[in-house]
Amino acid sequence: MGAGRASERTLVLVTGMSGAGKSTALKILEDLGYEAIDNLPLSLLSDLVRERDDGSRAGALALGIDSRTRGFDPGDIERYLGPLLEARGPDDIELLFLDCETDILRRRFSETRRPHPLAHDRPVDEGIRSERALLGWLREQADLTIDTSRLSVRDLRGIVAARFQPEAEHSPAVFVLSFAYSRGVPPEADFVFDVRFLANPHHVPALRPLTGRESAVADHVRDDPAYGPFFEGMVSMLTPLLPAFERDGRSYLTIALGCTGGRHRSVATAEHLAEALGGSGWQVTVRHRDLEADEGRQERQAAG
What would the mean pLDDT of 40-59 be, rounded to a whole number? Predict the structure, then answer.
């Protein structure tokens, strides 16, 4: 479904895994001008939609529904939501699903010491498995699924705003992400570029303690004779693809660049790419997955 103006869209249904960020997404939508209601009983949905169709309610509405919602069982989900989703027009209802990897959900519940709503006196993993089965039909029906496993709140805000803010302000989001191959390729990446072939600042003692965000390292990487043709080819490939993704209804795109340690070459190239794509009409955000993780650990150790 295409993204219409927030003021024209009747309803955004926000659902997903507990701990994946549904409440945060609802707050973001509220900031965008939606009237946000969390955990409305499913039995009231049809009446609410009919009320809005009659014109008695104005403005855009965001509803949060999840496993805590009254009447939320597999039969009622499809019975109440199925007819609404089948009958929707191009701007009537949009379904947003927030997902997250099981290991990260487990860690989030452990860190907050909150019980999983379906676990009760059982292990958290059992609650997560039960919820995945319960939400299977909804995930299949979703117009937009966002995996929040490695997204910051800022990243999530960019994706939700790109999809649901008023069209006059609408611009899709591009996330340029650097990473270390030693810690795995980001599963959320739409494009992955390997920059390990470039000259490695790690082997220069004066540059080793620096990062790709600093000019000395960036200059060293760009001075590699292979850098110019590679970078120009990458930009010339991506630039015409962005409008094509937008026409296809994509609200965000993740471009990942990896090197060995995620500190020098990938960081410098990601910064340069974000700058080059800045005039594309998309909201461009650069993030350094493993560099930021290392800096966070150092800060926590210093504080401890």
Answer: 63
Distance CA 288, CA 247 (A): 28
> At 22, which amino acid appears?
K
Cβ atoms 67, 18 nearer than 8 A: yes
- Answering whether pTM is above 0.85, one says no
Q: What is the mean pLDDT of the chain?
A: 82
Q: Which comes out higher in pLDDT, residue 44 or 184?
A: 184
pLDDT above 80: residue 220: yes
| 249 or 238: which leads in pLDDT | 238
CA distance 116 to 147: 19
Where b means 16+ CB within 10 Å and e means fewer, 80-101 reads bbeebbeebeebbbbbbbbbbe
Q: Which CA distances in Å does 155 have to 146, 149, 287?
A: 11, 11, 9
At residue 12, φ and ψ (nearest 5 deg) are -115, 120
CB atoms within 10 A of CB 205: 7
HEC string for the chain = CCCCCCCCCCEEEEEECCCCCHHHHHHHHHHCCCEEEECCCHHHHHHHHHHHHCCCCCCCEEEECCCCCCCCCHHHHHHHHHHHHHHCCCCCEEEEEEECCHHHHHHHHHHHCCCCCCCCCCCHHHHHHHHHHHCHHHHHHCCEEEECCCCCHHHHHHHHHHHHCCHHHCCCEEEEEEEEHHHCCCCCCCEEEECCCCCCHHHCCCCCCCCCCCHHHHHHHHCCCCHHHHHHHHHHHHHHHHHHHHHCCCCEEEEEEEECCCCCHHHHHHHHHHHHHHHCCCEEEEEEHHHHHHHHHHHHHHHC
From CA 186, how far away is CA 292, in angstroms rounded? 14
